Structure formats: C-alpha cells, structure tokens
Amino acid sequence: ARDGSERDGKGKDRKIGRSYSVKGRYIVADILKGTAYLGGGPFAQNAEKVVGVVRGRKTAVLGDKKGEIMIEAVIFDMDGVIADTEPLHASARNALLAEFGLDVEKISPTAIGRSKREFWSEVAENYGLKNTADELTEREFELILEIAEAVELPATDGLEDILKTLQKNGIKAAVASSSDRPYVDKILQITGLEKYFCAKACGNEVPKAKPAPDVYLRALSLCDTCAANAVAVEDSDTGAKAAKAAHLFCVGYDAPSDEIFQQKLDLCDVKIKKMRELLPVAEGMAAFKEKAI
Q1: What pTM does this model have?
Q2: What's 255's DSSP letter?
Q3: How far apart are CA 253 and CA 270, in angstroms?
Q4: CB-based contacts of 95: which residues, under 8 Å, 6+ apart?
Q5: Most Cβ neighbours (<10 Å): which of 133, 170, 204, 231?
C-alpha cells in the first residue's frame, strides 16, 4: 500500500477513507514502523497512519494503535482446552493397557502429546497385540465417553463466557482436534457447548494428525478465513507445532490439572493461565500487540 492505495484485484487503485481495500486480501499497517503487511509479510513502505484490516469486501479500521488485527475465528484444541479430559484419557488408556496385562506405568506416559493411533500402533507392534490401532483407538474413546458421561464432564471454567462473547461479536469458534469426530461431538454435547461451534476439524478427517497442520488448515477452510485472521488455543507442544505450522497466532493455555500433563508451550506466541484472559480476542482484536505483528 503506497500513499493509501493498493490494487483491488482488477488492476485499479482504490482508497477507502484511511484504510485499504484489496479484493479477497487483507492488509495490516504498522504505523510505528511505517510498514504495511500483506499476508503476514512486509511489502511496502510509507504506510498511512492507520491500522486497517481488509478481507474480501469487508473493510475495518481499528484505530491508531500498533498491531491490532481483526479476528474472524478462534480455533480451540479439544482435550485440555475445551474440557479437562486429559485425566479421563489417562484412566481409559490405563484400563485398556491393564486388560492386556501390560506395564501401565511404563507405557502410558508415552502416549502424552501423540495421536492415539500412533500410540496404539506402537503398543500393538511392540507387545504383539492382535487388535489393530483403529480398534484400540475406538475402544479407548468408548471408555473415555463412558467416564465423561458418568462424571457429567464440565467445560473449562470461563470458556462458555468466551464463546458467548465470540458469538455476540460475530467471530466464529471452531475445534481442531486429533481426536475422532464422534468423540468430539459427544464431548461438546456433554459439556453443553455444541451450539457455539460452527466448525469441527477432527483427526479422522485429515491425512495426518497433529503436529501436522492438517486439522488447523481444515478448520480455517471450514471457517472461510485465513491464518492471519484467526487465533489458535492449545495446551500441548504437539498442538502448538500444528498451529504454528499452519501459520496461526497461538495462545498457550497453561493450566494443566496435574503436573504429569505439563507442557513447555515454547512455540506459543503467548501463554494464559485462565480462559477469561482470552476476552480481548473474543472482543475482536489481538490483545498481545507486540507479538501479533
């Protein structure tokens, strides 16, 4: 964007007020650096003194503060973010390992941060189990859901308030999980959060689970947005790798229920301890301005 104008996709320069209009694309102008960003990278100098975000036919001017960007979607990991399901996974996994007479203490911790199919494939191969990884994965999910229903699994504290605020502001909420779709649907039903999510991208619907970016790329597509206009919320290093591989700004939810589930979250752009700290994002802008740009 030079002198407040940019090509509109038809070879014409257009200028709308103090922001930019670019058909099908977005711009963020950094007034302190005098640089504009297109698709996340600097592309022009002498940016106008305004922070603007433009996607398609939507033009939004957010004021004169550095680094504020319009958020169109927030994509949540499932386990450990939407609900504290990690202990349920551990209980179900341990029960299944015990059924086969395997060393629970030795084997179970190796499952943390990995997809279930990868874990059970390794266990079946190493210990000569006749069951396939798919069969073992499905059985574990069945056990988890039995426990979740029995204990009436609650949503993460403060999450519903965030989801209500997203909904009120027209910001989409999505799930990106390595878990299978039937499990994701059931957990959202049990926690009473299903009505807030417009899209769900699950591990059994993509070629590769996390840390590959596949579920996040699918979630972005389902939300009809791009990585620069979305935020991921993760509680694991594996999930953070997936989010960053999809070029998303990643918030690390660092509130494990037990130290055994503690993750470094070094790849996350910022960490939070309470879900309510997401409120600025739910209101439609990146709260962590220095890192957002």
Answers
A1: 0.71
A2: -
A3: 9
A4: 143
A5: 231
